Amino acid sequence: MRLRHLFSGVEHFVLYDCFTSSGYVNEDVFAYSNQCGGEKALVIYNNRYERAEGWIKTSVAMNLEIDGGRRLVQKDLCAGLNLRRDDNCFYILKDAVHGLEYLRSARQLSEAGLKVALDGFQLHVFLGFDELCDYDGSLFELERRLAGGGVADVRLAYQELKLADIVLPLKAALAAAIGCEGQVEALARLLTAAAARLQVAVPEPLGLLARLEVLSAAEMEDWLADSLPQLQQGHDAAWRLLASYAVLRELDVLLKAASSSALDVFDEWLVGHCLKQVWQAWGLSGAQAEYELSLIRILLKPRAAKALPACLLDLLDEREIEAYCGFNLYEGVWWFNREAMRSLIANYCLSRLLEGERGFLRLAPRLFECIEASAYRLEELRSALKALKWN
Question: Which range among 232-236, 285-289, 293-297 shows the weakest confidence by mean pLDDT?
């Protein structure tokens, strides 16, 4: 009902024929376009069981009033949707039914029309028709790579193409670190690529991957059994996040040479997108990947070096922690989510352990005792942390 205005008007309604590769009209395919106030829509439907393929290019004859008389005229797809025909112009077609986006050149739409392939009784509703201009040939390359197929986000795919020199080695380095295979070489390729893009020298690595490698599985599993039992994947879950953190911290050192940081380029370099893709390839759900993205942002945030308990007390004052741990005010008391706080403390301790501060491993069980003793009240947790004996 929200788009009724787009489909109900008749002033810009155009009905099209679907021509097969043999030049015949497929009478079972219904295609029409409409417009309203700059919004555009193209609806295509196959009204039979058999698969249908063809081109939507030319309208059926329309009886229009022209120069005081009426004439039968036909419009092509670009005229029917008021699209440009420039060689460097591209359009994003958003399929509202299937949730995919398609990239099509204005030139192809003008000269050949829109190629369609529909299964029995399949429907496409294309909306948006957002316009992009190609100034360096990259959109032509993206169109070639997509080969007519749909993607979840064309603009994101375009960014990936433009950032391929960083995105590809970043994904490879993350996957190698998580899989514990070829991680040193993959990290070196990533740092070399990033240094070339930023025009800085490759720094001496922190050695976090080597430190990660020597952490004994038994030690990790024993600690996680006590400190992080809510993670269903246990050791694998902690390892995935810690390995990703190690790669991004190594990248962070290089970025600092260019007066930047991993958090500064998190969106610009599609770091979050790369993390989600790699994590999901290792079995993480989309929702959980989003949740862990906020956690790794917290871990990567630069902080002044402080000893316990000051570092943890400062952590509780950060806005990102408030969102991650679900702080909420009820009847004058600030509460937090138990599982989120346990996850935060556990992974924070793991990251500090990776940085060489082994004392966090010994203190972790006592931190979890503070969480339970607080009854999930924020001020009680602060008080418990302050009262805890750290030596």
Answer: 232-236
Q: What predicted TM-score, i.e. pTM, was given to this entire model?
A: 0.84
Measured between alpha carbons, how far is 251 from 191 in angstroms, rounded to an integer?
6
Judge whether 263 and 251 are in contact, CB under 8 Å.
no
Cis omega (within 30 of 0) on the bond before 309? yes
Residue numbers of the domain that contains 171? 153-302
Q: Which helix (H) or strand (E) holds 328?
A: strand 328-330
Q: Report the pLDDT value the prediction gives residue 230, as an integer from 0 to 100.
A: 45
Cβ proximity of 359 and 311 under 8 Å: no
Give the whole-angstrom CA distance, residue 268 versus residue 117. Answer: 36
Tally: H helices and E strands in the chain: 17, 12
- Rounded CA-CA distance 214/219 in Å is 10
Average pLDDT of the segment spanning 349-377 = 84
Residue 158 sits in the same domain as residue 251: yes
- For residues 87 and 92, what is the distance between their CA atoms, to the nearest angstrom? 15
CA dist 158 and 143 (Å) reads 10
Helix, strand or coil, per DSSP, at residue 93: strand
As to burial, measured by CB atoms within 10 angstroms (0-12 exposed, 13-18 middle, 19+ buried), residue 311 is middle
* Whether residue 223 is found in the same domain as residue 269: yes
- Give domain status of residue 317, yes or no: no
d(CA 306, CA 87): 59
Question: Do 293 and 196 share a domain, yes or no?
Answer: yes
pLDDT band at 231 (very low <50, low <70, confident <90, very high): very low
Residue 258 lies in a domain: yes
Residue at a domain's end among 109, 126, 151: 151
What letter represents residue 19's amino acid? Answer: F
Structure tokens at 106: 């204005």
Whole-angstrom distance, CA of residue 188 vs CA of residue 205: 9
Instruction: State the DSSP code for 25.
Output: B
Q: What is the CATH number of the domain that holds 102?
A: 2.60.40.1180
54-94 pLDDT tens trace: 999 999 888 877 777 788 888 899 999 999 999 999 999 99
Residue type at position 309: P
Q: What is the CA radius of gyration of the chain?
A: 28
